[in-house]
Amino acid sequence: MSDKDFVSPKENLIYKVAIFIKETYNVKSGIKIELTKKIPVSAGLGGGSSNAAQTIIALSKLWNLNLPETEMHTIAGNFGSDINFFFNGGCALGEGRGEIITPLETIDIDNILLVNPGFEISSKEAYESVKISKKENTCWIDLMRHKDVSYCYNKLAEGICNNYPEIKQIIDHLQDNGAKKAMLSGSGATVIGFCPDKKTAEKLANHYSGKKYWNHITKTKRRTKWKLQM
Fold first, then answer.
1. Which residues contact 177 (CB under 8 A, 6 or more apart)?
2. 18 vs 12 pLDDT, higher one
């Protein structure tokens, strides 16, 4: 059950993962899962993927399956390209389809403003809008080397900004009003604004609150080992 009627239960990743684990490991007992959404749906923030990762961890423990790490990663890879990341979080390199995760050195960044204009963008649409280039992008290497957010880059942004001019307007407004860098988060529609200080972040947050846009000030999180939240 969920506090928001945003998708039919059988189409939710939590449900799909739970049924897969129950059938694969011949589990006889059932489970009741309650989902409370604290971020917008289809916002490019990995909400569904993080839900799925937590479900795998939880069911492994609650159903006494004691799944090894490699097996959890295999299950996750069946359902999405970024679920694997959310087993540990932190700063990491995703390769392949995104399911091959290599932990990287932590980058501590404060005063990150998230802004969502209130509409959903499907991952399918975002990826279909990408223009593939054979030239390798090394921005992530420069980001890790210099710890400078100006190197942050999202290949999905160009196509999404063409399809949704409002997102481009948010990016431009953030950068024109104090953010060191603004960019699309995942497949959107959330935009990330890297602010130099709390005052700037709060000023921009107040602006978007006035426009009735969902927003939240946050920071990067250090990597943690799997932890079941009960």
1. 200, 203, 204, 207
2. 18
